[in-house]
Design a protein that fits this description.
about 280 residues; alpha/beta; Rossmann fold; Pantoate--beta-alanine Ligase, Chain: A,domain 2; 3-stranded antiparallel β-sheet; 9 strands; globular; EC 6.3.2.1; ATP binding; nucleotide-binding; ATP-binding
Length: about 280
């Protein structure tokens, strides 16, 4: 496995791979079992897998956790090597953003400024900025993203369609810990009480999934179950619900679940940590 710290090193590495298939797994490091599942799928579907580890500053807002975001590079590199990754791209901020006057990318109005984009209006512009750079540098046939960040997946897929980019975004299933909480690098922020409180999130997802499997498709009825489940959870620590939203794959609100075309998106702050979860209905 090669560790690539510069764009020039990445370009030379990619050139040497020629026409062999390449999968890209973009990450911000602090790798967990969710990332492992992405890497496994990429390695199974491609001759080579390149993982990027870059805590991207442009997707963080002014009061967000850029400076404290978990960084575990040594462990991440060892994990990537054990999984059969061909190369890991670990650039500095200066390498990725050498200009003080960077070209900016705006997300689509109807998808990029709602839900996560409502509370974090610069977030998806920063995501698209770094993702496009990685796509152009790595030139993968496939790129692997986790379904936990559903809004991100859908917006990146729209960028591919709108700009006719020659690759496929593979959306991979959510991976959960033994207690049901979706893996996230930010889970390390949770203390034991907060972790216990956060379990109301997967409990709500399970409740909605069960109701839909029993034929409850009306969003009005499903919303009642959402709030009943969240309200009944024991309040161990401060908790705030940002949104509990049913929509289609364009993030437009829906009144009824259409199987294979609907989403339930949930964002909750537990203590000081913002946690996301969802159900692809």
């Amino acid at each position: 496995m090669q560790v690539l710290q510069s764009i020039e090193a990445l370009k030379a590495f990619r050139e040497n791979l020629g026409t062999q298939s390449v999968g890209l797994v973009p990450t911000m490091g602090a790798l967990h079992k969710g990332h492992v599942s992405l890497i496994h799928q990429s390695c199974a579907q491609n001759t080579h897998t390149i993982v990027s580890i870059f805590v991207n500053p442009t997707q963080f807002g002014a009061n967000e956790d850029l400076s404290t975001y978990p960084r575990t590079l040594e462990q991440d590199l060892a994990l990537c090597e054990s999984l059969g990754v061909s190369g890991v791209f670990v650039p500095s901020i200066e390498e990725m953003y050498p200009s003080a006057d960077e070209l900016m990318i705006l997300p689509p109005k109807m998808m990029g400024y709602v839900l996560e984009g409502f509370d974090r209006p610069t977030h998806f512009g920063g995501v698209l900025q770094v993702v496009l750079k990685l796509f152009m540098l790595v030139r993968p046939q496939k790129a692997y993203f986790g379904k936990k960040d559903a809004q991100q997946v859908l917006i990146v897929q729209k960028m591919l369609r709108d700009w006719h980019l020659p690759l496929e975004v593979v959306a991979c299933p959510i991976v959960r810990d033994d207690d049901g909480l979706a893996f996230s690098s930010r889970n390390v922020y949770l203390n034991p009480q907060e972790r216990a409180q956060a379990l109301c999130i997967p409990k709500t997802i399970q409740c909605i999934e069960s109701a839909i499997s029993q034929g409850v498709y009306e969003v009005q009825e499903l919303h009642k179950l959402v709030h009943k489940t969240l309200d009944s959870s024991k309040s161990l620590v401060p908790m705030h619900i940002f949104y509990a939203y049913f929509c289609d794959y364009n993030l437009a609100p829906i009144e009824k679940i259409c199987k294979g075309e609907s989403l339930f998106l949930l964002a909750v702050r537990v203590g000081k940590t913002r946690l996301l979860d969802n159900l692809w209905c």
